[in-house]
Write a structure and sequence with these properties.
Length: 400
């Protein structure tokens, strides 16, 4: 019998739509999977220096490490943030995890009591909502405004704060919308946390995937010494090594008033022994070496060109509109309800999967409020992406 703790937990990115795709594959169909931001299947390879670093350190990676992570990795992360102006993040403030996903779960388990509320963006990366629920908390979704380039609606956030609200989640650059928040927005989010004594949880895994001269701003750069901020990031996306599972959380702010929480986080880190040690040895190499990601995010680079192509082609489809993404690896187009009166967007994407053998994720799977969006991964090369959006356009033509 399934645990009742899973009653409100969903992860539709790998849910029923993927099950149906696997069924079709078993029948011999070739499915174009654009539901998960996994660079490897689309020809993106890890930098050679990172692979070489892991291989070189394998003889030293056979045993458990410090549960917080090996010293060289934590030092590299600390120095990375210090070089970006966050002088108060030291080695002892870093925890290494098996990707950001594990650390989100550990942090929430260490912090949340049953019935506590956590403000989570809508749309969101659904792990956040699921992990809050699994920890016994209640996710409260605040609106990101599509008409304002998908920026968080600060007034909506403030209106949803209660005496049970413990934390505010920020995803910047945003998955699934590709929004990159400007300084007034980040400062506004921090000010809300300061006024209401909230902990900030800033998911910044796409911080290096930025287009069009936009700048990623670390939330922790604006918190000072009076707002606790947990900054999550890692190597999966920018360094194309999702399978290595190398992520971290950096803790800043008034740590002296959070000793119980930090003790709990350390306990949970100890209970899982440690993050995988071979991948930890790649962190220093990655952060201190040549940043090959820079070649991908400018005109002529694959991440850039594919994002812009997807955005343009989707907007050419009648009844479809898409806000231009300025970061991350996704587009989140809207289907005009007057043109496409969809009642069940999961059923819609499954129908399109069966008809056109293309797998995307429905918008409500990202805790969006209406069945009028879907997320498309922009990792395929331009030829494959053109083919994929052509299939979507063909399918939508049957629905008008």
């Amino acid at each position: 019998m399934q645990s009742e703790k899973l009653r409100d937990v969903r992860y539709d990115v790998r849910g029923p739509i993927l099950v149906e795709a696997q069924r079709l594959e078993a029948e011999g169909h070739k499915i174009l999977k654009l539901n998960i931001g996994n660079p490897a299947p689309f020809g993106f390879e890890a930098p050679e220096a990172i692979v070489a670093s892991m291989i070189h350190h394998l003889p030293d990676a056979e045993g458990y490490s410090d549960s917080r992570g090996i010293y060289s990795a934590r030092t590299a992360v600390s120095q990375y943030y210090q070089s970006h102006g966050l002088k108060n993040i030291d080695v002892e403030d870093i925890f290494i995890g098996n990707g950001v996903s594990e650390l989100i779960t550990l942090v929430l388990q260490a912090l949340i009591n049953n019935g506590d509320e956590v403000l989570v963006p809508a749309p969101d990366y659904p792990l956040w909502t699921g992990a809050v629920s699994l920890s016994g908390g209640h996710p409260v979704h605040y609106v990101c405004d599509e008409e304002n380039a998908w920026n968080p609606d600060l007034a909506d956030i403030e209106a949803k704060i209660t005496d049970r609200t413990r934390a505010l989640v920020i995803i910047n650059p945003n998955n699934p919308t590709g929004a990159v928040y400007d300084e007034p927005t980040v400062r506004g989010l921090v000010d809300i946390a300061r006024r209401h004594d909230l902990i900030l949880m800033s998911d910044e895994i796409y911080e290096k995937i930025i287009f069009d001269g936009y700048q990623h701003l670390h939330t922790a750069a604006f918190t000072g010494d009076d707002v606790m901020c947990l900054t999550f990031s890692g190597l999966s996306k920018a360094y194309r090594i999702c399978g290595y599972r190398a992520g971290w959380v950096a803790i800043s702010g008034p740590k002296h008033v959070a000793s119980d929480f930090l003790e709990g986080l350390t306990l949970l880190a100890n209970m899982r022994m440690c993050a995988n040690v071979p991948a930890q040895h790649t962190i220093q190499t990655a952060l201190g070496g040549y940043q090959s990601i820079n070649e991908y995010v400018v005109p002529g680079g694959r991440f850039y060109d594919q994002s812009k192509l997807a955005w343009r082609l989707l907007n050419e489809i009648p009844g479809v509109s898409c806000v231009e993404p300025h970061g991350a690896l996704y587009v989140f187009p809207r289907l005009d309800p007057e043109v496409y009166p969809i009642q069940d967007d999961q059923a819609f994407v499954i129908e399109m999967l069966r008809a056109k053998k293309i797998l995307v994720t429905h918008g409500t799977g990202f805790n969006w409020f209406a069945p009028d969006h879907f997320r498309l991964v922009t990792l395929p090369n331009t030829e494959m992406l053109t083919e994929a959006i052509g299939r979507i356009s063909s399918f939508l033509a049957t629905k008008r």
